[in-house]
Amino acid sequence: FPESLRIQLNLFAGQLYISSYNEYREIRRFLGVASTAAPEGLAVAADGFIVENQQAGAQFTKKPPRVLKVFMSQIRKDGQEIDKTRLGNILDGKLLLMADF
Length: 101
Description:
This protein is mostly helical. The protein has one domain. 39% of the residues lie in helices and 0% in strands. It contains 4 helices and no strands. The protein is globular, with a radius of gyration of 13 Å. It starts with a helix and ends in a 10-residue tail after the last helix. 20% of the residues are buried.
């Protein structure tokens, strides 16, 4: 069961819970979003999306966070916000630390 398939299924199902820092990093890598401060010479948008992403495992060439956030908010009961969840933090471009888990 490939990691990328598990991530895709969880995102499609609206899974907001992220159990570990490693899972957090894998989701960010899959979405093409930086999980640490950007190294010099790497262009990162305000939402954390890595521009011209050549990172191994990245599945997107265009920014998915905003669209995915709208989608996930809409499939929630009564359009509940996801901002305070770990996935909501990823989609807002906020960095989490290992201590947050």
